[in-house]
Structures are given as C-alpha cells and as structure tokens.
Amino acid sequence: MKAKSLVIVESPTKAKTIGKILGEKFTVVSSMGHIIDLPQKKLGVDIEHDFAPEYAVIPRQRKILDELKKEAKGKDHIYIATDPDREGEAIGWHIRENIGAKKKVLRVSFHEITPAAVSSAFKAARDFDLNMIEAQVGRRLLDRLVGYFLSPLLWKKIARGLSAGRVQSVALKLIVDREKDIQKFNPQEYWEIEAELKKPHSTHSQFLAKLEKIAGFKAELKNKEAADKVTVGIPGQIFKVTEVKKSEKKRNPEAPFITSTLQQEAFNKLRFTAKRTMMLAQQLYEGIDIGQDNPIGLITYMRTDSPRVAPEAIKEVRGLITKKFGADYLPPKPNVYKVKKLAQEAHEAIRPAFTSRTPESLKDYLVSDQYKLYELIYNRFIASQMNPARMEMTSVDIEAGIYLFGASGSRMVFAGFTAAYDKANDDQDKPKKELPPLEKGMALDLVKLLPSQHFTKPPPRYSDSSLVKALEEDGIGRPSTYAPIISTLLLRDYVRRIKGYFTPTELGQKVCELLSEYFPKVMDVKFTALMEEELDEIEEGRLGRTKVLEDFYAPFKTSLEYAQQHIKKEVVFTEETCDKCGKPMVVKWGRRGKFLSCSDFPRCRNSKSITSGVKCPQPECGGELIERRSTRGFFYGCSNYPKCTFTSRALPQEEGEKEKPAEPTSQD
After folding, report:
1. Residue 23 and residue 27: Cα distance in Å, rounded?
2. I need a labelling partner for 204 at 20 to 30 A (CA). Which of 343, 426, 467, 588 fits?
3. Is the model's pLDDT at 543 over the cut of 50?
4. DSSP count for the chain of H helices, then E strands
5. Which residues, including other chains, have CB under 8 Å from residue 561's CB and lie 6 or more apart?
6. What is the mean pLDDT of residues 326-341?
C-alpha cells in the first residue's frame, strides 16, 4: 500500500518512533535538523531594509532537501512534526517554503511521542505560528549581528579564528567575574567549639552542642589563643538544659522538572554535564526500543520552562500514588506549581509519558545512564503530586556558666513525598540527627570539648548545575540554549571544566576583558535578559521583530565604530630570540593555545610551542612537556614528539596523575 501522507521530523530516531505509531498510510522522514540558515561567508542580514534575512540552503543539507522534495511529490497531505518550540517551528517553516509542494502543508505539534498524543496532534493539525517564527528569526539575527561584527575585532586584538556570541559572552563574564572574586578573596581564620555531652549514667545518649554565646554575646573566636582560653574555662562548669523547643516543620515537594532544574539535579545527583543530560533526555523523548511496543517515547519534551502537567497525567499519577503509597500520601487536590514570568505555558514539565512504565520495568531496555536519568525524572514527577513530609524539630539551649551551647535535631513524623524522591541527600534540608530525650533543668555530663579551626571560603567556581541556575535566574538564554552555551565556551577554550567546575582560561579572560571594555552593553546581564524578554514578547505578538533589532543595533553600531578605530593588536614580546633570524619572539594565540612566533612574521614564519617547564619523565628523553589540544580535550605531550610519545592529562607532579602512552596521531 502506497502511503498518501508525508510526515517530516528532525531526527531518524524520532521518525522511526512516529512511523511505528502512524502505520503504513504515512511516510515519515527526517530533515536532520535545519535545512536553511543564514549564509556562512557573509552577514546575510539586510540592515538597510528592516534587517531582512538572506537565507541559503546549508551546503551539507542540499541532498536531504532534494530527497524531501522527491518524497513530497504525489502526496495528498504533508505534515511538519518538528519539535514544539521556536526552533522546531522555524525548521518546519523553512522546509515548507523549500520543498516545492503545492499541497497544503500543516504543522503538527506534540509534547510526548505516544500513540494518544500523536493521534490527538494529527487531528488538531494547524497552520504555522508566525509569531514563534518571528521570535526565532529575531534571535538568529541578533546572534549573527554580534558574532559577525565582534569576531574580526577579536582577530585584530588577540588572534585569528576567535569568535564572540551574544549570550555565551555574558555567560563567560559570569565565570570570569567569579574567578576574580576568588582570586581577590582573603580567607579569615575562625574557631568553633563543640561539646560532646551525655545524660548522666547513660552510655548511649551522646550528642554534640555548639558554643553560641559567651556572657550573652555571640561567640566569635578568631584565633587559637581565643579558642584555648575558652576551652580552659569550660570544663569546670555545670552543664544544664535551660530550654527545650519542639515544633513541626513541613517540607513541600518540588515541581516536576523543567529543563534548567533537570540539568541542575542531574549534575548534583548523577554528575552528568548539561550536554550529557540533554542528549540522554532527547533519547528518552524520541523513542527507545522496549520489546513488542518498540520504539516509544518515554518522557515528555525536554526543552521547557513550564511546570504545567496535563490533566490526564495528573489523574494517572494520583491513582498510582494511592495504590503504591496509600491514601495518606495523596493531597485532596492536585499540587499546582507557580509558572514563572514569560514561561511557555503551552509546554509541559518533563515527566514520564506513562507512569505505568516504572524505571524497574524498563531496566533491561535502557543503558545505565538512560536508566539513571529516567529514574530521576520518574521519581521527581511522582513526588511532585504527593503530600508534604512532616518533621519534628527539636532545639535545645544548654548553659555552662557564662557559656551558652545550642543543639538541634529532627525526627521524621511522616515521610510524605520523600518516600518517592528526596532531594535532601545533597542539600541543607537533610534531616539532622535525632537528639536523646532532654528536659528543662536536666544536668548533663561533659564527655569532651572539640575545638576546630576554620577559614572563611571564597565563592565556589561555577559547575554545570550552578551556572545553569545563574543563567536562568538572570534571565540569560532559554531552555534550549543552556547546554549549547556551556559547550561553546568549552569548545572555544574560553573556559575549562576542571574536576566538574569551570575555570576561565587566559584566552577567555582576554576575550572577556576586551568585550567588557568596548561593548559594556552587550556584556551586561540585565541588558541581555531584557533582550530575552523582548524575544518572548515577539512570540506573544506584543512586539515587532524589526523594532527589537533597531533598538539593539543603533547603540551597538556606535560601540562598534569606536572599537574599530581604537583597538590595536596586542603584542607580548618575550626574552627569547628567533633562532632563524635573530628577531624577538612574541606570544601569539592559535587554535591549540599559546605559542611563540617570530616578531618579523610573515617574512619569518618561525614558531615554536611554549613549554610548561616540566621535564618529560621518560628516561633519557630530555624533552619538556607542552600543553596540547585534541578532539578529546587537553593533555600534556613531550616536546620531542614523535620521537617520544609520552602524554599525560595533567602535569606529572600533580597529585593522583596517571600517565599513559599516546597514540602517535594525538599531537598532529
């Protein structure tokens, strides 16, 4: 039977899943992402005529476009079923405009790839949302204007091949500013004193109490001498309970995941990077082979900023909670979570497509990391519709002469949502150890004093989790951009991920300093957030794309003209001389990092790597280790390569380093 309808999606996996659901009457094909984009080798924006885009077929996609045109011939109906967001709407619109079909092309949008959702979406096929397309075009043109004009300035000042981006440059500034705060931080010493106490005549009632006040004032012990003075004065005192306070505290469940919270929690619990989280989530969304029902989408769409949940999913999960946990765990009415300003409410939260498909039931069909992420999403969703947990909190004041100690503990009264999912394993809400029964006026025995030295800590470097949180809170980017922002910064070597935390490179700091000096508005967090809000308003039909671009470009052009006149090439001379012509050597930047070049370039093309100063540990080698870059990241290789193939992921003197032989091509 020849299919009469054509369905176009982005990915082969998605095509396979939807094809299985729709059956033989439909041909489902993949566009492999964008078919049309702005040209690579020119601006592609007609600034003089309302910033009109000049689109072109992406060279590598030309063959796919020809195949789509061929598939469209003779079809009665053509449906575009790309992702349900701005990017998907724009991809579909460009396909529609270029496949050359005279038939009416309709848009199909769904947030989960299940038989019911797909069937419902095809019954509600619609025209394209021009406001969504306008918003996507606005973002693309803004990004092109910034990148196209700023990148040559970086070439002029620092090195050719560098590039700047509208949103990722602001993200870079967050990382660089945090590094500056860390570098200028001056740690302050302080001491704490805890007393290990117990009830008289008891061997199993020990607990810790912390010194809080001395003679009615806050205990501030700034050095060992002050701590020693206190530890000498305490042992002779009588410890007595002066107050016992009990209260009940509720811990409410958190909303089901949206993109940002999924990326944060996947890093905190599973140590997944934002990029890995999104890759795994896309696999779960687009379809997994699960035996006879294969393939099928297991979660809803993973790019969303809305915690909304469909009524039918609420009904399903409430039934499961009653059956699995009991009526006490089910709230009288479904939990509803606040939607932040400008969230796309048509989207849903990230949740399992079927609550009947428990993580355990799918374990044989999922690879380890897929399973871990699905379990996280599944349990968080179940917990989001459960009753709060209830804790009995106890706080105790204990006097010992002029010294006042405090102790606190907690006891779980009702597990509530924590029976399904407990975030407290990795945050400050983790329940405290329960105190032994204590009463006002009760005397206590001192077991021992525990003085401890501490230092104030600088603000932590950003991780995938905390950077995504900061980007979201500051209104920088949108759900689809968080992971690409991080990937771009790493790819350009503006930052490096070291033990899970981002450190700006010297190159990243230079780029940030230059852009901050000449383009303060582009690098301003509030200004970037305002641009995001205006793009959202375009999508809502409350603002015109041309107006947004005009308002941005006028001051940007002024800054650009000033920078073009005043930026000069940065030349860093070294004490080394060129061994070919005798001229001084200068520091330059290349795609593999810093290197030394003859100052008489291009007449003299001599160059050499900058070594780390660390000798190669291979016996009788005599070379020095040089930082190099490959597709797998950064490493240190010997300057005598290829004669010596030693490599190391860190300098040998660094603790915990493991050395390994290199593949001969790794330094090419």
Report:
1. 8
2. 426
3. yes
4. 17, 26
5. none
6. 92
Closest CA to 7 of 34, 26, 33: 26
Q: Between helices 464-474 and 482-491, what is the axis angle to 10°?
A: 120
Q: Going by C-beta distance under 8 Å and a sequence separation of 6 or more, which residues neighbour residue 176?
A: 504, 508, 509, 512, 513
Average pLDDT over residues 192-219: 94
Rounded mean pLDDT, 341-366: 87
Which superfamily is assigned to 189-252+389-455 in CATH?
Topoisomerase I, domain 3 (2.70.20.10)
Tokens of 655: 């603790």
d(CA 84, CA 347): 8
Q: Return the closest-CA partner of residue 89 out of 62, 117, 108, 113.
A: 108
Tell me how far CA of residue 243 lies from CA of 393, 396, 404, 448, in angstroms: 14, 6, 11, 22
Question: Which CATH architecture does the domain made up of 137-184+461-566 adopt?
Answer: Orthogonal Bundle (1.10)
CA distance readout (Å), 51 to 89, 372, 513, 519, 643: 20, 46, 29, 21, 55
Q: Which of 504, 629, 651, 666 is nearest to 168 (CA)?
A: 504
Q: Mean pLDDT highest for which of 47-56, 100-109, 599-608, 643-652?
A: 47-56
Contact 283, 365 (CB under 8 A): no
Overall average pLDDT of the 290-307 stretch: 89
Q: Is the dihedral of CA 636, 483, 86, 136 positive or negative?
A: negative
The Cα angle at residue 597 between residues 567 and 517, in degrees rounded to 5:
20
Amino acid in position 582: G
Neighbours of 634 (CB within 10 A): 15
Phi and psi dihedrals of 232, rounded to 5? -75, -35
How far, rounded to the nearest angstrom, does the alpha carbon of residue 113 sit from its chain's CA centroid? 25
Active site residues: 301
pLDDT of 663: 34
Total Cβ atoms within 10 A of residue 49: 8
Query: Is the pLDDT score of 666 beyond 70?
Result: no
The DSSP symbol for 348 reads -
Domains 189-252+389-455 and 259-384 share a fold: no
Retrieve residue 205's tokens: 């009632």
Matching CATH number, 5-128, of 3.40.50.720, 3.60.15.10, 3.40.50.140, 3.20.20.70: 3.40.50.140
Among 83-97, 158-172, 352-366, 389-403, which stretch is predicted with the lowest mean pLDDT? 158-172
| Amino acid at residue number 446 | L
Amino acid of residue 452: S
Choose the weakest-confidence range: 85-94, 369-378, 564-573. Answer: 564-573
Query: Which one is the CATH code of 259-384: 1.25.40.390, 3.10.180.10, 2.60.120.10, 1.10.290.10?
Result: 1.10.290.10
User: Biggest alpha carbon distance in the chain?
Assistant: 97
**Annotated domain spans of the chain:** 5-128, 137-184+461-566, 189-252+389-455, 259-384, 572-661
One-letter amino acid for residue 487 of the chain? S
